[in-house]
């Protein structure tokens, strides 16, 4: 039985800041941001968007009534969750009107959370072939204003429907995963901003990729030439290229050229959104399959997932016949074209807006937020959500 990605949706906030302008305001050469780390725009979440609404908006565009009835497991991968007890997925489950006879959980392991969700989903579908699982990867990356990590911030979410006989990608059985206790990136419960040892994190990312790649080749019998493309977790778009370059010499000249060209295409969406943590790998995959018109059916795509702290995994998928008929390219093009640029001072003002932490009531103006699902305020320590189309 084939199990894999049946549908994939994406959402990012309607606001962004231009990285050239951010660089100038920080007295940094623009090329450091646009070429050095490979970012052009950074999504800015207004206070009316949080990881719950981002995920719900991503899923809203792809789910139909049959999906809502068949989904009996919701797995919400995030490292910027809003509650230490209640799963963010429970809010999404209600906002989308999903089947009440469902499991709903939240999983956390830095940027690896959505991948963990997909692997759990495969097991669930194997036991329940008629079921569908909604896997969400939703995050807001925050490092602080004028900090070394500022240029690698971002916000957005990816929603994946995992099912038997998938329309887009069948996930192959072989995968390799690796864990080691490393303090390259962390966010204590008392902080709304992450801490990172950038140099160490870059080194460990490449080291983990090397370990799982070597083991994967031994386990699967496949080699670099067998891949049409490899998609990477992208905290910034140059990171995956650094890892890819470490293995390019294993392939033929045609394979090298193909993999580098497809890697560039796979970074297109991420380059204009920024880091979305748990969703970054799948935004890269989405960019590849939506922007490369001649990507052949039955192509094998490699996927490298990395979550600081750290867990890494390499696994693969096969694109299914007529997979392009099940993509939402037009909707995503419209999402990008409708975004509004904010100035650096406006971005800084938005960044510093926070919700109350003392139980007080606040009502937020959602009229300027074009999203279908928004955070409308807080009352008695409870977030209030609105689905404008429900």
TrEMBL record:
Domain (Hydroxymethylglutaryl-coenzyme A synthase C-terminal): residue spans on this chain: 178-248, 257-353
Domain of life: Bacteria
One Pfam assignment: HMG_CoA_synt_C
EC number annotated for this UniProt entry: 2.3.3.10
Domain Hydroxymethylglutaryl-coenzyme A synthase N-terminal, residue spans: 2-165
Keyword annotations: Acyltransferase, Transferase
GO-annotated molecular function: hydroxymethylglutaryl-CoA synthase activity
Database matches in InterPro entries: HMG_CoA_synt_C_dom, HMG_CoA_synth_N, HMG_CoA_synthase_prok, Thiolase-like
Family of this protein: Belongs to the thiolase-like superfamily. HMG-CoA synthase family.
Protein name listed in UniProt: Hydroxymethylglutaryl-CoA synthase
Source organism of this protein record: Virgibacillus litoralis
Organism classification: Bacteria, Bacillati, Bacillota, Bacilli, Bacillales
